[in-house]
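Quiz preparation item.
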């Protein structure tokens, strides 16, 4: 794994003098110049010669004690240990480089060996042997499992011990680009500006509001916060985490009551995505009810300021039941408003922008049903809008006496927009008919305007239509010629948003980002067409977007389909001659659009000569519903072959070459990673698999695992033989091949992850190690398990930066770039070379 480290030569002379001094003075015998060598080397100093002790002492005195990290006890790999000392001595005397020392150091380390315990899994007359099934512990308390995971973490830290200084430098670079004392763009609502802020050194948000000053007038795109108005702190996440002494903290929902006197929020302090609901009086700060645990995080207020709707989860973490709580009454009296019996359906709640209706949504992967309760009659029973029909999905917005329904079915996969009277929702008028080439993503309604978010050719846009005065609804299809389009010019970007604040506000808030444009907030006046850029996320350290180039190219899949690929590089740093390291990102599932987005942390790579790319592959939603459907069920392999085609295309365009091509994906994107390294291990140098769904077949056969049942409509139900055989042909754990030289792999997981079991990456790493040919070239097969987090890893903004720095250090290490500093004049601080 280690390659030549350019830092060694510059340190050789000084270190050689230190070695000579230690030899002549006999200082290394037991202490190494004040260092306890026996402890540092795990007792191995006792078999060392004087010269070997001198070398060990010189390393320790020079701050290179990591060389001995995780050394096994005497009698294990002693020959490899002597090779380390010989390589270190040669490096200290200038006769060899760091690559030899690092290779020798890694050869000493012994990876954890997961015991093989035969378990036969049978289905459809087929028997699979899973020797690592025992790693699954639903209680997360089995000492043997926890010990194994701890050993994996120790081994991973030891393997990357030589990157610790680089990790710290990368972290400082990333943090140095962040404006720590920052504030979100306020949202104007019912006489207040609501916003969040972060203070210097704070990891979490503080939720605040200030009153809109008297005489401020109607909302416009030019609204600004009046800081002369006193600030009211609604929720300080930093204080909540500190006072509760939590290692994990995440807020689910946060909502003021309609009269703005009470404040409800939900928080997860474990990482398992079970949220506890709290409500407090904003005047006194006192909580007005006992906390309600086990919720999904969704909360909505009735118009009476006393009724609170929330959702609870079942034993499989499925949000399935809506309850109604009355402030001042015990939770035992809470009323069940809605309960979903079908285990393939999940339940959520949200309030319409008009604030007149509370929607209850029940949905599977391909089917949905919406119920509603009037906010001013929260005690009424919910009413269904359109009864569920298999493979028909719809969402609903409200204005006046009408529902605006965005509906998708098999004949209209890209969706169309309809309107119906609330009293007769089945009698609908089509406002925007289905289009083969344009995907209708969602709509945002306000009192006077309809904003339609569309996607065409892989890019997003917004069209704004005026609506009839009063509560009336359009009576015929909308004419696109009457719409005002909000468009952007960059070749690849991400954009989203919706109506802002009060229902009668004419302001549409857009969130925009690209590979070169930091996250931007743009307020658009739907009446006048005026735009105001309210904020561009600050990037400190001299960042200039003009230093970087973003482009979009098209790869040809094996079936001839053109696959869009977005990429970015730094001008004058990337050579574009095929020698550049490149990080290719992919996802490709659930119709999620993996659009081009900005990351200030990514500058650490770009400023070191990397190219970053995103493959917009089938299974995602970048090109519409047809794109998604062509990458699921029995077409799932299109996702993988699209990604491989994108990688090959980038190589053919001389943007990289296989030994410089690294890949990354999270969750379902981790399944993608596992599949493509099995299919084309020769094409990739390294892979980062974040919380990867890699034991797909075993998981989808097991209904006791959260998400399994609902996900049958994404992957197929392997209890049907056709799906079983197909899934078995790509499920990463089931397709590890003995003797194959795989890329370097870093897999991560979260012990409390309810979405992807921690055991999936643990099993994959164990199986890859077991399949490795002892004579094959060395490859890092590493597992990093967060023992106090879930699917989304750590939550503090600085802690997240440390996670990214760790992953980037892994990439730089496997590419032999530990000593490569960012280009002078970049928004990064140069990395001082480590010295022996």
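Solution:
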């Amino acid at each position: 794994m280690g390659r030549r480290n350019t830092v060694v030569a510059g340190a050789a002379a000084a270190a050689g003098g230190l070695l000579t001094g230690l030899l002549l003075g006999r200082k290394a015998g037991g202490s190494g110049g004040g260092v306890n060598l026996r402890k540092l080397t795990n007792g191995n100093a006792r078999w060392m010669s004087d010269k070997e002790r001198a070398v060990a002492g010189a390393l320790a005195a020079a701050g290179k004690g990591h060389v001995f990290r995780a050394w096994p006890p005497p009698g294990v790999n002693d020959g490899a240990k002597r090779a380390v000392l010989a390589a270190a001595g040669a490096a200290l005397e200038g006769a060899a480089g760091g690559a030899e020392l690092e290779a020798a150091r890694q050869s000493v380390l012994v990876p954890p060996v997961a015991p093989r315990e035969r378990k036969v899994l049978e289905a459809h007359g087929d028997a699979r042997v899973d020797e690592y099934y025992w790693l699954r512990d639903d209680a997360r308390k089995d000492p043997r499992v926890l010990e194994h995971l701890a050993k994996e973490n120790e081994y991973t830290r030891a393997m990357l011990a030589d990157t610790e200084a680089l990790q710290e430098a990368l972290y400082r670079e990333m943090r140095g680009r962040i404006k720590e004392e920052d504030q979100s763009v306020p949202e104007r609502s019912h006489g207040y500006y609501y916003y969040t802020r972060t203070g210097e050194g704070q990891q979490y948000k503080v939720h605040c509001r200030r009153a809109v000053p008297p005489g401020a007038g109607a909302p416009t795109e030019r609204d600004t916060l009046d800081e002369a108005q006193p600030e009211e702190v609604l929720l300080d996440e930093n204080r909540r985490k500190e006072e509760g002494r939590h290692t994990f903290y995440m807020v689910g929902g946060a909502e003021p009551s309609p009269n703005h006197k009470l404040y409800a929020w939900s928080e997860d302090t474990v990482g398992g995505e079970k949220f506890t609901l709290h409500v407090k009086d904003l005047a006194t700060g006192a909580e007005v009810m006992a906390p309600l645990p086990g919720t999904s995080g969704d909360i909505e207020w009735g118009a009476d300021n006393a009724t609170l709707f929330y959702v609870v989860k079942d034993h499989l973490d499925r949000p399935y039941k809506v309850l109604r709580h009355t402030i001042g009454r015990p939770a035992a009296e809470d009323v069940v408003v809605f309960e979903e019996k079908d285990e393939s359906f999940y339940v959520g709640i949200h309030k319409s922008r008009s604030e007149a209706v509370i929607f209850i949504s029940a949905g599977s992967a391909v089917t949905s049903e919406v119920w509603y309760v009037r906010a001013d009659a929260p005690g009424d029973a919910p009413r269904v809008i359109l009864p569920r029909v298999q493979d028909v999905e719809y969402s609903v917005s409200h204005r006046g006496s009408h529902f605006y329904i965005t509906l998708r079915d098999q004949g209209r996969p890209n969706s169309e927009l309809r309107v119906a009277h609330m009293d007769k929702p089945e009698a609908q008028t089509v406002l925007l008919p289905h289009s083969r080439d344009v995907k209708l993503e969602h709509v945002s309604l306000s009192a006077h305007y309809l904003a339609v978010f569309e996607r065409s050719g892989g890019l997003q846009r917004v069209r704004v239509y005026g609506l009839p005065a009063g509560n009336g609804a359009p009576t015929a299809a909308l004419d696109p010629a009457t719409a005002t389009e909000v468009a952007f010019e960059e070749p690849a970007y991400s954009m989203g948003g919706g109506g802002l604040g009060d229902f009668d506000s004419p302001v549409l808030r857009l969130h925009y980002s690209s590979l070169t444009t930091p996250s931007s907030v743009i307020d658009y006046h739907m009446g006048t067409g005026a735009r105001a850029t309210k904020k561009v996320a600050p990037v400190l350290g001299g960042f200039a977007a003009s230093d970087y180039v973003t482009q979009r190219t098209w790869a040809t899949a094996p079936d001839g389909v053109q696959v869009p690929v977005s990429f970015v590089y730094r001008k004058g740093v990337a050579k574009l001659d095929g020698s550049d390291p490149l990080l290719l990102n992919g996802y490709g599932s659930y119709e999620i659009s993996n659009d081009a987005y900005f990351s200030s942390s990514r500058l650490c790579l770009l400023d070191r000569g990397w190219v970053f790319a995103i493959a917009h592959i089938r299974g995602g939603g970048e090109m519409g519903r047809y794109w998604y459907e062509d990458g699921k069920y029995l077409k799932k392999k299109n996702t993988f072959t699209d990604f491989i085609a994108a990688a090959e295309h980038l190589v053919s365009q001389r943007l990289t070459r296989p030994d410089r091509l690294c890949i990354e994906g999270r969750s379902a994107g981790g399944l993608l990673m596992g599949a493509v390294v099995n299919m084309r291990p020769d094409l990739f140098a390294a892979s980062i698999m974040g919380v990867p769904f890699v034991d797909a077949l075993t998981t989808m056969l097991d209904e006791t695992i959260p998400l399994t049942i609902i996900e049958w409509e994404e992957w197929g139900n392997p209890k049907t033989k056709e799906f079983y055989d197909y899934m078995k042909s790509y499920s990463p754990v089931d397709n590890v091949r003995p003797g194959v030289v795989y890329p370097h792999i870093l897999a991560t997981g979260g012990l409390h992850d309810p979405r992807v079991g921690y055991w999936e990456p643990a099993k994959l790493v164990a199986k890859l190690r077991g399949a490795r040919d002892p004579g094959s070239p060395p490859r890092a097969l590493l597992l990093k398990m967060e023992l106090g987090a879930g699917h989304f890893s750590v939550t503090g903004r600085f802690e997240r930066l440390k996670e990214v720095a760790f992953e980037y250090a892994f990439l730089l290490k496997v590419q032999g770039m530990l000593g490569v500093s960012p280009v002078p004049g970049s928004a990064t601080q140069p990395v001082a070379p480590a010295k022996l």
